[in-house]
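WARN retry 2 of 3 for item q-0093 after timeout on previous attempt; input resubmitted unchanged.
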Amino acid sequence: MYQPTPQAKSKGGARKVFGILLILFAVIPLLGTALTVYKTVQSSKERNSNDAFIPKAWHNLQSDDIFPARLTSETVGSDASVWARQGISKNTSCEAAFTADLARDVTANGCKVVLRATYTDLSGEMAATIGLVVADSPAAANAVDSKIERIQSDAAGSDRAPTVRPFAVPGTQAADWSEKMGIGGASAQVFMPDSPYTVTITTGPTDPARPVGQLPEPWTFIGWEERHPYRETAQALAAIYAEDLRRTVLGK
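OK item q-0093 returned
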C-alpha cells in the first residue's frame, strides 16, 4: 500500500527563530547601554542644576533651612550639646556683622552679605552667634575664611578672640548677649561646587556679670583655661553648622 512520504520540516522557520533570538541578544545590551547613558545624562543635568542653585541658595532657601531651630555639636570632651535658636538678624550688611576693622578687611576680600542668628545651649549659660558670610565667589569666600583664621591665630594668647558680632535677641536667654561678652571665635568654609559661603562664629557667656578668664594676680596666667572652652566650642559648632548647611543645600 502506498504511503505518502512526510514533508520535510521547513528550515526557514528555524532560521527565523534563530534570527529573532540573535536580534534580541544584540538589542538587549544596547538597550541597557542606552538606559545607562540616559541616567548619566539625567544625573548630570541634576548636578548641573544643583550647582547653579548653590550660589543662590542663601537667597532662595527659607530662614528655617539656613538656621534650623536646633543644632547639635560635639564640644569639649566630645560631649554633645544641643543649641536652640533664639532669633535671626534682619540686618545682613557686612558692616553690621563685624567690627569696623574686620568689616573693612572682609569687604575688601569680597564679603557681600552676612546672615546672622543667635543660639544658646540648653543650659542657657552660653550663647553663639553664627554668621553665614556670602562672598562674591568661592575664591572670595576662601579669602574671608583665611583672613578670619589669621586673626584667630594672632589672638591666640589674648583675652578675647571673637569674630562675628554677637546679635542680642530681646526677651530670650540671649537678651544681654553683647559684643564685650564674645570670647571664642572660629570660621569654616562650606565645601560645595561654586560655594561662596564661609561660616564665622562667636561664643561667650549669656550672663554679663560673669567675668570669664579675668583673674587677678597671681592667677592671671591661668585665665586662658576659662577662655579656651569657648574657643573650642566655636570651632566645633562652626564645623557642625557648615556640614549641616552643605547637606541642606545639596539636598534641594
